[in-house]
């Protein structure tokens, strides 16, 4: 659910609009989302929806309202010129006051469950993240590629909550020299996290941007969610949520119940075979016809380790089965061989809020092919069931595939 609401300015200059996005549960911790120089445009509204899906009540205030209300620009050359003129004319002190007013509005909303609030800003909003952290009582502020922060480093002693700053290595608006100045003052202060992303430029997290850099955007988003959850929540038992998902996949084999544990548009990628699906329609088809009902009856998963983070679960396990049916997702096009298989696997499971967002599943396909008799390991640096056996028993011999291992014993 989303809508525009009114925000009352603290200086009594009037009221202005803010775009409000609610999480699927209808309530949660509150964050203010700081706009880029293009106003509360389609991109910022989409970002607001993303954070709402993470479990937050998100308010995006129109920070240009004192100059021209309702700015909603694209990214044409004319839009850039307009955006830069607005940015140049913006009173930053008033903008921070308006962010504080947005905090006031959030605290008055019944949908906001926690008194502690957060701020996340991009570009202009990235700069304002720092100023918000030094001038308001925000619990945590996160800034993406904010420029001009170095001009306000004398305010650093005003920091009281968490501060996370993301910059791209190639960002000419905050170059290496400038980042070094920022780090000299901020690094080591309690609650401060500074990140630079190799190969990334300004606007590396904006979908559709010429500078969009997905690996950096993913890393930065994970760190952002980690910081938000640390300071303002929400707290979910991701381990239990993951267990519920795999219960429906492998025990009840209930496709609708499996999909209910996921966001509206999830994706799954089995890395070795490029199988899975993107979006609920494709993934539902994959689960129904090629996965949930395509596992042999004796399929088992032996847990080895589980790491639970702020937004992600990483499972290490051994999957065992007898190849009695065609397994489209693991052995597409291969007729049943009747062979018994044990293979170590890793599942990297990402959540948005209390729903599963994506799965990246890894295993050693060569080991599987060796075990079903389709790959002769002779002369190749591959192994069969031994990979699973050694995972559970580290005393088994190491380096048996290395012909030169014996020669190094006395070196």
UniProtKB/TrEMBL annotation:
The organism's place on the tree of life at top rank: Bacteria
InterPro entries with a match to the protein in the record: AB_hydrolase_fold, Dienelactn_hydro, Dienelactone_hydrolase-like, NTF2-like_dom_sf
Pfam families, A to Z: DLH
Residue ranges of every copy of the Dienelactone hydrolase domain listed in the record: 16-231
Keyword field: Hydrolase
GO MF term (any one): hydrolase activity
Keyword Protein transport: no
Keyword Hydrolase: yes
The protein's name: Dienelactone hydrolase family protein
Organism per entry: Pseudomonas putida (Arthrobacter siderocapsulatus)
């Amino acid at each position: 659910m989303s809508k525009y609401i009114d925000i009352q300015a603290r200086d009594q200059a009037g009221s202005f609009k803010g775009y409000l996005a609610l999480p699927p549960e209808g309530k949660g911790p509150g964050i203010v989302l700081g706009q880029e120089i293009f106003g509360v445009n389609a991109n910022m509204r989409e970002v607001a929806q993303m954070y709402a899906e993470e479990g937050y009540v998100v308010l995006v205030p129109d920070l240009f309202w004192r100059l021209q209300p309702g700015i909603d620009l694209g990214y044409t050359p004319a839009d850039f010129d307009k955006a830069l003129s607005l940015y140049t004319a913006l009173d930053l002190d008033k903008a921070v006051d308006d962010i504080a007013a947005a905090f006031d509005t959030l605290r008055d909303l019944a949908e906001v469950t926690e008194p502690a609030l957060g701020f996340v800003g991009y570009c202009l909003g990235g700069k304002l993240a720092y100023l918000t952290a030094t001038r308001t009582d925000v619990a945590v502020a996160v800034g993406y590629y904010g420029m001009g922060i170095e001009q306000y480093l004398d305010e650093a002693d005003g920091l009281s909550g968490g501060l996370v700053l993301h910059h791209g290595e190639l960002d000419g608006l905050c170059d290496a020299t400038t980042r070094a100045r920022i780090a000299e003052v901020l690094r080591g202060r309690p609650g401060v996290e500074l990140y630079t992303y190799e190969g990334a430029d300004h606007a590396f997290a904006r979908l559709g941007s010429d500078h969009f850099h997905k690996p950096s955007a993913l890393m930065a988003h994970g760190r952002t969610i980690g910081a938000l959850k640390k300071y303002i929540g929400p707290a979910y038992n991701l381990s239990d949520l993951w267990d519920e998902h795999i219960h429906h996949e492998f025990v009840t084999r209930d496709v609708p119940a499996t999909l209910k544990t996921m966001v509206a548009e999830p994706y799954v990628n089995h890395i070795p075979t490029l199988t899975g699906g993107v979006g609920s329609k494709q993934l539902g088809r994959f689960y129904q016809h090629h996965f949930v009902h395509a596992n042999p009856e004796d399929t088992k998963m032996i847990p080895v380790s589980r790491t639970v983070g702020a937004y992600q679960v990483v499972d290490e396990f051994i999957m065992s089965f007898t190849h009695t049916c065609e397994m489209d997702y693991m052995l597409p096009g291969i007729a049943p061989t009747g062979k018994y298989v044990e293979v170590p696997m890793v599942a990297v499971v990402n959540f948005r809020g209390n729903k599963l967002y994506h799965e990246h599943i890894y295993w050693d396909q060569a080991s599987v092919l060796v075990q079903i008799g389709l790959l002769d390991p002779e002369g190749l640096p591959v192994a069969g069931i031994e990979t699973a056996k050694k995972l559970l028993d580290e005393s088994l011999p190491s380096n048996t595939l290395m012909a030169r291992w014996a020669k190094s014993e006395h070196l």
